[in-house]
Design brief:
The chain is α/β, with parallel strands linked by helices. 35% of the residues lie in helices and 17% in strands. The protein contains 11 helices and 9 strands. The relative contact order is 0.15.
C-alpha cells in the first residue's frame, strides 16, 4: 500500500531507531551551565531552546556563555547579538575572560576591575593589557574557526536572518554526510544563538504578536529542516508585585513563544539575597517546558559570580507552587531527582552535619 502523507508504523520504528542510534553525544552542544547540563544533558539536534529573563537578569551573559562554551568544545557557532552588535558581544566576552584570569591569578594586584572604565579606555592598566594579549592567544587556540558573530549593520529582519545562514552553506559540505546530519543539507553549523527575539526588526504589516509568532515559527523550521539547534533569548513580561517565578505565560509578546519551543527556560534574580560586597547574585533557573519529562514544579537556585561572570557549579532545588512561589527550604538529599544527586549545596551541608555528629 502506497500513501503520500503517511508512513507505516514499521517505517517510523526503523527510521527513529536509525536516527537515535546514529546520535553521538560528543557531537551535541551543551549549555556550559552546570544544572542545565545535569538536568537536560544536551541541546539536541533540531531543538529550539527559548530562554526568557527580565531586563538586567543576565540574558546576554547566558547567550555569550552558551555560544563561547560550545565554540571551545569544537562546535561551529553563529552568534546574533542584536542589541549591541558584534563589538558589544566580543567586548563582553573579552571582559568576562579578563576578569576570570585576573581573579584566578592576579588578584593580589588590587586593581579596580571596572567594565565601563575599560570600555571607554579610561583605565589603561598595563596588567589588564597583558591579560588581554593572553586572552587573544587563548582565543586563537580554543575558538579557532568555530565562533562567528553576526556583523549587524542595522535592524535584522527575518528575511535577513534566513539569508545570513547561507554563509554556512555549501554543496561540498553535503558530500558524504549522513542523512540526519545538518551537513547532509549543506550547512556547516552546529549551533545558532540569538540575543534576542525582541530585537528582530518587524515589518509592521501585522500585529506585533502575529509577527513575533511568525519569527518563532520560521526559526523552528530552521531547527526542523536543517537539524541545527537554536538558542533564542527573549524578554519576559514586565514583572508585577505579585508575580512569583515566571512560567510559560510570562514570555513577552505571545503565548506561542514557549508553545512552539522544544524547551523553555526562565532566569530570575533572587534580589533579596544579593551580596554586593562579593558580587554574588543568587539566580533562579526554572525549566518551564521540557519534552523529556522535567517538571516546572522544581526550580534551581545558584549563584552568579559578578566578578568572574560565571555561574557556580553547586546549586539547590526548591519546590514551586502553582503561584510560582518557592518552598522556604531546598529539597533534602533524599528528595532530589537522580540528575541532581551529588551536585547540591544542601547535600554538602547535610554531610558536614552528619560528620560532626
Amino acid at each position: 500500500m502506497s500513501l503520500l502523507n503517511f508512513l507505516s508504523w514499521q517505517d517510523c520504528f526503523k527510521k527513529e531507531s536509525e536516527y537515535r542510534l546514529d546520535t553521538d553525544l560528543k557531537k551535541l552542544c551543551t549549555y556550559g551551565i552546570k544544572p542545565l547540563d545535569d538536568s537536560l544533558l544536551c541541546i539536541n539536534k533540531g531543538e529550539l531552546v527559548i530562554i526568557g529573563a527580565d531586563s538586567g537578569a543576565g540574558k546576554s551573559e547566558a547567550a555569550i556563555q552558551i555560544a563561547s562554551h560550545n565554540a571551545k568544545q569544537g562546535k561551529k557557532v553563529a552568534l546574533y547579538h542584536l542589541e549591541g552588535g558584534y563589538r558589544e558581544a566580543i567586548a563582553r566576552m573579552k571582559w568576562r575572560d579578563i576578569c576570570q584570569e585576573y581573579y584566578q591569578n592576579h588578584s593580589e594586584a588590587y586593581i579596580e576591575m571596572n567594565y565601563q572604565k575599560w570600555l571607554v579606555n579610561l583605565d589603561q592598566n598595563k596588567l589588564i593589557s597583558e591579560i588581554e594579549c593572553k586572552i587573544w592567544e587563548d582565543y586563537k587556540s580554543k575558538y579557532g574557526d568555530n565562533l562567528f558573530i553576526h556583523n549587524s549593520s542595522g535592524d535584522l529582519t527575518l528575511t535577513d536572518f534566513l539569508a545570513s545562514l547561507l554563509d554556512f552553506h555549501s554543496l561540498e559540505t553535503a558530500a558524504g554526510a549522513k542523512y540526519n546530519d545538518q551537513r547532509a543539507i549543506g550547512f556547516d553549523l552546529d549551533l545558532i544563538v540569538i540575543d534576542h527575539l525582541q530585537y528582530f526588526s518587524l515589518d509592521q504589516g501585522e500585529s506585533e504578536i502575529a509577527e513575533i509568532t511568525n519569527i518563532i515559527r520560521q526559526v523552528k523550521k530552521v531547527t526542523d529542516n536543517y537539524h541545527i539547534p537554536v538558542v533564542l533569548i527573549s524578554h519576559l513580561r514586565k514583572k508585577t508585585k505579585d508575580r512569583g517565578l515566571p512560567d510559560q505565560q510570562d514570555f513577552y509578546g505571545s503565548s506561542n513563544i514557549p508553545k512552539i519551543a522544544t524547551t523553555a527556560i526562565t532566569i530570575t534574580p533572587q534580589i533579596n539575597k544579593e551580596d554586593f560586597s562579593r558580587s554574588i547574585y543568587p539566580t533562579w533557573i526554572r525549566i518551564v517546558k521540557s519534552r523529556i519529562g522535567l517538571r516546572p514544579s522544581i526550580a534551581i537556585l545558584l549563584d552568579f559570580d559578578g566578578r568572574k561572570k560565571s555561574y557556580a557549579e553547586k546549586y539547590d532545588l526548591y519546590r514551586i507552587n502553582n503561584d510560582g512561589y518557592s518552598s522556604p527550604e531546598p529539597l533534602g538529599a533524599l528528595e532530589l531527582p537522580k540528575w541532581a544527586e551529588g551536585n547540591t549545596k544542601t547535600e554538602e551541608t547535610e554531610n558536614e552535619n552528619y560528620q560532626d555528629k
